[in-house]
Write a structure and sequence with these properties.
31% of the residues lie in helices and 26% in strands. By secondary structure, it is of the alpha+beta class. The structure holds FE2/S2 (inorganic) cluster (FES) (2 copies).
């Protein structure tokens, strides 16, 4: 199978698909920036961009109708230009910048086109809506002086089976009038960077060699998305040991990593950069993330340790986290606070916030328990700290209750013995 080759582009030059020579099922590495997030995938050469977005990155907003370039349902932006995602092989798009309907607006801040489609009832079943939104965004951006009379022809590349054309045209026309200089840019493209690429939103590097070197050595800085995290967790744990003992664990990154549920440290690049792997179960789905972590702050005197991390699984699920551990001395020992902001994208983001929040909370509770055990023994916790499973999440509240009752019973018995003496 041979497809046209990728050609390097200058600023503003149209995207030219790269030529790739590979068997249809041969995996090919491809790196794209999707909705502002750099992604790295290994895909069979036959996978279309539409399937890569839907099946490998979990971005199911891009719909597929005819798969022949006729219906326009699959329209996305490739380097700022509308393109049929069913007609492009993903492996052709190395280095491309893709925007899908998910990148257009946020639920709490929809793009003006989305607002207008809603206001004018420009959707019935909604199947053509992503294609119409991306196509009309492209039209109003590249041709803001388009006239009302020209709209039917200009938008004829997308087919609505529900024949909602009149309302669709009204919605696009209203947006055109409200933004004569061109519509606002997509509002949901995060500023992130993954290892190995300085894409949109990544910190600028001094040159390509340096970027590549930093990427391959894992020392490229991690950039977290702006905006609200998907999940915010704060767990406070009381540890019956002095702060010094707790910092005995926090100072030893390898020991600390052994306390992270389902995680292992695979590389230490120096300068506070690490590579690792983490296994997570969300409901019935098991994911293995490969990623990097960076220690931003390690201040024993101030009782503060801050790290950021990001990982990606082979199915394209991505997670990023900003974690701060703080300690303070208490009458009985140490209070350890774990504050985490977790950002989820791709397949994993489809799970409800509540379930993903439960998993995160449970993981931090297990982490705190493991730190307590390691601080008490001065050694790594006995046995690997397992990531929470669906079953453990269901039974966790029950187990916690039993533990609390046992502790209370133990205190009462001790109290009774004290009185007897
Ligand atoms: S699915 Fe791509 S144009 Fe119809
Ligand atoms: S709203 Fe149903 S296909 Fe257009």
């Amino acid at each position: 199978m041979t497809v046209n080759e990728a050609v390097p582009r200058g600023e503003g030059a149209p995207f030219t698909p790269r030529p790739v020579k590979a068997g249809a099922d041969d995996p090919v590495e491809v790196r794209m920036t999707v909705n502002g997030t750099p992604t790295a995938l290994s895909l069979p050469a036959r996978v279309t961009l539409a399937d890569a977005l839907r099946d490998h990155l979990g971005l199911t907003g891009t719909h597929v109708g005819c798969e022949h370039g006729v219906c326009g349902m699959c329209t996305v932006l490739v380097d700022g230009e509308a393109a049929r995602a069913c007609l492009l092989f993903a492996v052709q798009l190395d280095g491309a910048d893709i925007v899908t309907v998910e990148g257009l607006g946020r639920p709490e801040a929809l793009h003006p086109l989305q607002e207008s489609f809603g206001r004018h009832h420009a959707l019935q079943c909604g199947f053509c809506t992503p294609g119409f939104l991306m196509s009309s965004y492209d039209l109003l951006t590249n041709q803001p002086d388009v006239t009302e009379e020209e709209l039917p022809e200009e938008l004829s590349g997308v087919i609505c089976r529900c024949t909602g054309y009149r309302n669709i045209l009204t919605a696009v026309d209203e947006t055109r009038r409200a933004h004569p200089e061109g519509v606002p840019a997509p509002g949901n493209c995060g500023r992130t960077a993954l290892v190995g690429r300085a894409g949109q939103g990544a910190d600028a590097s001094d040159g390509p060699d340096e970027t590549e070197n930093a990427a391959s050595s894992g020392t490229q800085d991690i950039v977290l998305p702006g905006g609200d995290p998907t999940i915010a967790v704060r767990i406070t744990t009381g540890i019956d040991l002095p702060e010094d003992r707790v910092w005995g664990v926090l100072d030893d990154i390898h020991l600390l990593a052994r306390c992270l549920p389902g995680a292992e440290l695979t590389d230490d690049y120096g300068h506070g950069h690490y590579a690792g792997r983490a296994r997570v179960s969300v409901g019935p789905v098991k994911l293995t993330f490969n990623g990097v972590a960076q220690i931003l702050e390690h201040d024993r005197a101030a009782g503060r340790l801050r790290a950021i991390a990001q990982g990606q699984d082979t199915g394209g699920a991505q997670t990023q986290a900003d974690i701060t551990l703080t300690t303070e001395a208490t009458e009985t020992g140490t209070a350890m606070h774990a504050d985490a902001k977790v950002y989820l994208t791709g397949r994993i983001a489809q799970f409800g916030r509540a379930l993903a929040g439960d998993v995160s909370r449970r993981m931090f509770e297990q982490f705190a328990d493991a730190v307590t055990e390691a601080a008490a023994s001065g050694q790594a916790p006995s046995g690997p700290v397992k990531a929470p499973s669906a079953l453990s999440l269901v039974f966790a509240p029950l187990l916690d209750r039993v533990k609390r009752l046992l502790r209370r019973g133990g205190r009462r018995r001790r109290g009774g013995r004290e009185k007897e003496r």
